[in-house]
Amino acid sequence: METASSSPLQQNLQAGGGRRLQDCLAEKTAPLVTVITAVFNGQPFIAGCLESVLRQDYPNIEHLIFDGGSTDGTIDVLRRYSEKVALWRSGPDRGVYDAWNKGLSEAQGDWICFLGADDEFLPGAVSEYMKLATQYRHAEYLSSQIRWVHPSGYVNPAHGRAWSWQRFSKNMCVAHVGSMHKRSLFDRLGTYDISYRSAADYELLLRAREGLCAAYMPLPTVMMRAGGVSDNQAALLEAKRAKISSGGRSPLLAHIEFETQRLRFALGPLRRSAGKWLNI
What we know:
- By secondary structure, the chain is of the alpha/beta class.
- Helices cover about 35% and strands about 20% of the residues.
- It has helices at about 10-15, 45-55, 75-80, 95-105, 125-135, 165-170, 185-190, 200-205, 235-245, 250-265, 270-280, and strands spanning about 15, 35-40, 60-65, 85-90, 110-115, 120, 140-150, 155-160, 180, 215-225.
- Strands 1, 2, 3, 4, 5, 6, 7, 8, 9 and 10 form a ten-stranded mixed beta sheet that branches.
- Helix 9 runs antiparallel to helix 10.
């Protein structure tokens, strides 16, 4: 009996590859770092993301990519990199955080980080993080600065501050992209709550409250392109919900902070314009 050939979308939903499936990963020579990337129709930037990981000078990285069923050529790019990445899979998911949770179930690293499909590690980033991990052996969360690039042309070369509960309980002060999470942190806190579309990374760290052991370096490690689901006012509402439900924040204080941040968001274009002209 003849059957109809599957459509390109159906083929994509069944796709997968990577060196792990070929059982040819390198031997462990240093603590393994897992980089997880979620992507959906990210063809313009995904190659740059993959190359930035491959260019790292740290000797023991596995890159796991989870695609949500792209139809724009992303799968073709991933196939070209099958011999260079540890694992990639394509199939339906329920958003970025669902893809991240899939990555956590596959991750074998001692440290785990999340790199957006349109973001790129800067040279030497992972090595610098592992130096920080050696310096602060009790830390379970490592963060840095990032180079934040807006489509308008505005660039913030040093976005992201050190974690402290006093600041973090009010807003997401750390630069989450590229930051490192010790595996034991997920053992303790669990995985991402996919009822959030844009603030699950913030919500997960809020669960630790003041008990989070963190370390920071004032060095940019990632080039992050602005935009996406976390760059809108709806994200502020989600952050407000996370602060109250997981961070124990007073609803009144959370509402005041929401209104303040909403005003700051509304003034964003003006601030970026001024920043470009004043070179700040």
